[in-house]
């Protein structure tokens, strides 16, 4: 990939996902006999980078993997997807990250992550890799890597006049330190409640939560609502973007697909309403399939005519 063509940088985690399908997610101390087992590359950052690539965006991934079989497999698959990995660093002292995922018959999931090399992505690594992509326009970040790396990447992006999209997952108490660096925040319902203290029970309370986040310095708030689509607060205007109605099989990477699709549409000059609509459509396809990266749709699967 031509370095000058990269428009979107994703800074985040890369894991190998180990997934078990089962009737229900076990309670503490409970053993459940599961069904299908499979492995595929995951990690929120990696999922979002692959989503960007499959949906037509020019993307680079900045992260850290182990010098092991999982890291090598992930790098190879990234390359095959068309993701620029010149900013991807191998750590010889730590294994690649893994995630243990249980998916129940309703498609809901429970996830435990061992971050491995992801936890050793430092600010100096980010700075070195960022220099490879001076023409990038959008930074997409999440929180499965050290907070300092996310914060530093956001500062570098601001210095380059990039649009910074924060997917605040998993949510933690440090997130408010990012607000001054973020242009768009994309929490789900649970994350929005944690960040604002507003109990979301419907559209009105979701709007209240969005207003709280905006008052803290973030211009654009998009709260994802699962099967109900997304609530967009753009300036003073609220927009409820519905999602296509589908049969949900597995929600594992739905939020990652949403964020990757949002970044792609914005990089193409689409409005926030158009971009959020595109993101809802992409995510609605992902939930009909098993797995993380296996579930990510390609551009030609999106029916939205405006794209």
If you had to describe this structure to a student in words, what would you say it looks like?
This protein has eight helices and 13 strands. The strands form two sheets. A nine-stranded mixed sheet has the order 5-4-1-8-9-10-11-12-13, sandwiched between helices. The longest helix has 15 residues, at 272-286. The chain has 307 residues and is α/β, with parallel strands linked by helices. The chain has helices at 44-54, 69-81, 123-130, 147-159, 189-196, 203-215, 254-267, 272-286, and strands at 8-11, 15-21, 37-42, 59-66, 88-91, 97-103, 109-114, 138-141, 163-166, 184-185, 220-224, 230-234, 237-241. It has a single domain (3-14, 42-96, 117-301), classed as Ribokinase (UDP-N-acetylmuramoyl-L-alanine:D-glutamate ligase, 3-Layer(aba) Sandwich).
Secondary structure layout:
Blueprint: E1 8-11, E2 15-21, E3 37-42, H1 44-54, E4 59-66, H2 69-81, E5 88-91, E6 97-103, E7 109-114, H3 123-130, E8 138-141, H4 147-159, E9 163-166, E10 184-185, H5 189-196, H6 203-215, E11 220-224, E12 230-234, E13 237-241, H7 254-267, H8 272-286
Parallel strand pairs: 1-4, 1-8, 2-6, 4-5, 8-9, 9-10, 10-11
Antiparallel strand pairs: 2-3, 6-7, 11-12, 12-13
> Termini, distance in Å?
23 Å
What would CATH call the homologous superfamily? Ribokinase
| H/I helix tally | 8
Q: Work out the number of β strands.
A: 13
**Tally of discrete structural domains:** 1
Mean pLDDT: 93
Radius of gyration: 18 Å
Give the second-level CATH assignment, the architecture.
3-Layer(aba) Sandwich
